[in-house]
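Late entry, evening session. Most of the bench is empty. Finally got around to the prediction I had been postponing all week. Sequence below, unchanged from the version circulated by S.P.
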Amino acid sequence: MKSNSIIFPFSVLLLVFSLLSCTDLEENVIDEQLGGDLIKNPNNVQSLINPPYGSLRRLIEWYDYWGLQQITTDETIFPTRGTDWFDNGAWQQLHIHTWSPDHIRLKNVWDAMSTGLSRSNTAIYYIGQFPQNETTEQYINEARFLRAYYMYVILDLWGKVPYRPADELDFSITPEVLEGKEAVDFIIEEVKAVLPNLKTRSEVGTERVTQGAANALLAKLYLNYEVYGGEEKWDDAITYCNAVINSGEYEVTDDYWSMFQHDVTGDHPEFIFTVPMSDEYDMGGGSVWVNFTLHYSQTFGNYTSLWNGGSTTSTFFNTWDQENDVRFYDDRIMDETGFNQGFLVGQQYGPDGEPLETRSGDPLIFVPEIDLEDSPENYGVRVVKFAPKPDTERQFSSSNDVPLMRISDIYLARAEAFLRSGDGDAALTDINYIRSRRSTEGEELPLLESLTLDDILKERGFELYWEGYRRQDLIRFGKFTDAWQEKPVTDATKTLFALPTSAIDVNENLTQNPGY
């Protein structure tokens, strides 16, 4: 059931003006007559709140935001395979940290997040012009949270974020730029301001902004505060983790893989804030989860276009307890698809049980070896986190609702904050609480007897791999510039991305990050 879903194709996400853009000073009129009706008629309030929610979908597109958070880390690598997957070196550059200000993925993500920020401002301003009631006030608070969320994402990626107040309509004024502590403090205060006025998960579900989502975002902001603002805020992180955990609205379940099936919805008890998806609409290939990793010959059901790309590194693969940890492997979709969820290694089979071959007729055996510049077809252990729907009529439109926040992450965040603030016993309790629910059938994932920060980083990898968390985690743990498979040690300046040239060109207050 998706009663609170905001499901619509991108083609209908049309606002009248990109009025409040933070980086683009042009007014982009889409349809003047439609626009006048939209912003003057209170009955259209839903049409104003939907677009900032719609931009959240850009956070789960594998080739843009997800790519920046994953392909730059030890969890994910997109090697060139003959003439496939070179794309002017874009994927190689992300993996070895040699991107430039003109890298297409940086520009795309900057534009997408700036659009989300702009749509949030537009919603705040125009909904505020309507006669106020409970619904308009709720939507304004949700839009303020979404604006803060997009600012958080931009800050995390670039260390600074342009900001224009929602009621600033003089576009000759260049947006100011918030950096570091000033930026994170502003975002925190915005979230705190709206938190008491938001509804709960039980009232509106996980596909709308809730108090749980606000508390979870505050927990993440304080957990990363030392990176953003230069100070430790572990106690604050614990406080807001407690608010989520003690709300009684969320539960760590015993069935880890239930979160990643094709029929999963925002109703799942682990989910705090989700992006609703549907294969009833054409959404584009950015939100599909199997096409970019499976081999060309691993066709099944209505999935006929597979691209043999992304893999995991042996560096990450070799950290796993492959026998006892249920998160490594699950076979519930194998009869329909021929492959398992989790890590795909060794001989691969079709849905009929027959062994598959490469295009040259060799056995299709996935191996951990990788050559970033020229990998054979079978190189690289593949990963399938979200299960596809074999009988879908739209193989490029995933049906899986995708969590942006879930409760196990909050337990792991609290464990980290506990350990960093000196309470090792409490940290160990939280880590073992998660591990106690992640054993394979007939086996038992051992509980830890002691705990280090490296243990917590590993546990975050086991729980959250390929979900878009890894870059932020590696930076916080001081390991983002380390060497791993096919990547040398890189400079500390790479913890921030280069600002796109196009962004600097339209905002004189933006200055390029060091090292670029």
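Two things to note before I forget:
The chain is about 35% helix and 5% strand.
Confidence is low (pLDDT under 50) at residues 7-34.
Will write this up properly tomorrow.
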